[in-house]
Amino acid sequence: MGIRKEQKEKRRMEILEAGLNLIIRKGYxxxxxxxxxxxxxxxxxxxxxxxxxxxxxxxxLIRYGISGPMGMMTDIGKEPLAFFExxxxxxxxxxRTEPSTAKMFILMSQAHYNQAAPQSVKDMLSTFxxxxxxxxxxxxxxANGVIREGDPFALAIAYWCAIQGIAEQMAMNxxxxxxxxxxxxxxxxxx
Length: 191
Prior knowledge:
Elements: H1 3-26, H2 33-40, H3 44-47, H4 54-72, H5 80-97, H6 99-113, H7 119-125, H8 131-144, H9 152-172, H10 181-185
């Protein structure tokens, strides 16, 4: 990639980061393109060379927010407990090293409840389901005797909501100590 393309991509990522920071603090509706442009020190007109609208920028953030967790769900061929252990460890490691990832958890949570979200975002969110494949893995782990008894879907919710809550706390309080991934897995682990 040439230097000019690298600089443009770096600037594009700065704009996305600014959009993420502002949207999680002010909300999608209250965040203006001019706010994002000011945050990164450019004119709104120049920002439109990177993203043709706030909606397009928001869609990009949501697409990224969906791709991470859904990408992890492609690795479900592992032994169920190993999948949940590895996933919790990977997510906590990413949260430690890439603070913007914790903010993505807030963005995605807000997006699910945002009635003012563009229809394109609502459509993307309607395809986002980590609970169903997780519940199927939990059923398999229950059959193998490594995952506790209980409603598999409810256990999937408990596991993922623990990760969600931790990510949100780390985004808002980056100095807090990180829990151990085993603590999360213990929610579903058979004792």
